[in-house]
Amino acid sequence: MIYALFLVLWVGISDWYPKQVQTVGTAVFRKAIISTGSRWVVILSPADTKVGRFDTTLAVLNKETRGLGQQPFSSLSIAYLPMAMTISLILASPVPWKRRLVSIVFGSLVVCAWISLALFFMVLNAYCGEPPLGMYTVGAWLTKPIGFITWVVSVSTVPQFVVPVFFWLMVTIRGDDIQRLTGAEDD
Questions:
Q1: Tens digits of residue pLDDT in 11-64
Q2: What angle, 0 to 180 degrees and rounded to 10, lies between the N-to-C axes of helices 163-172 and 97-127?
Q3: What are the φ/ψ torsions at residue 92 (nearest 5 degrees)?
Q4: Which of 16, 38, 164, 177 has its CA 20 to 30 A from that of 92?
């Protein structure tokens, strides 16, 4: 029920939310690039044409070769749904409200870290590609795993439905909750 409410909420914020992802994502990448002195330029911007749910374009530029790569993605899939699912699970948990609120804060931080990881792998995948964009030669033994991880964290349904369950368990459920649910008594 709670998750359904988040899905209905998406209809109202579907124009606003991608802009926030683009603004925050670009700022995070800019700070990371400046702090590392990297040769990368990464910009998240509105997709030129919305194809399906793809509303954002991740543009990566190799400053040395001027190679440019772009990858469309869905802020709904990568950011909104994992957050909505995690918060829904937390709110539906049979734990005290104070713990739910604390869990929402920590769960939101964990989901934000997951979103950053997904975007990082999208960029890493681009930079391990062919010239002129590719900056790193990691070899076939690492290129395929990076591509697979990128697919798992940014394209598949895993981040939308499976990963939030682990986040929920991590930030909400305690050992005494498991004992209570299984009917085990403390000796």
A1: 999 889 999 999 999 998 888 888 777 777 888 999 887 666 789 988 888 777
A2: 140
A3: -85, -5
A4: 16
Q: How many residues does the chain have?
A: 187
Q: What are the tokens at 110?
A: 């964990």
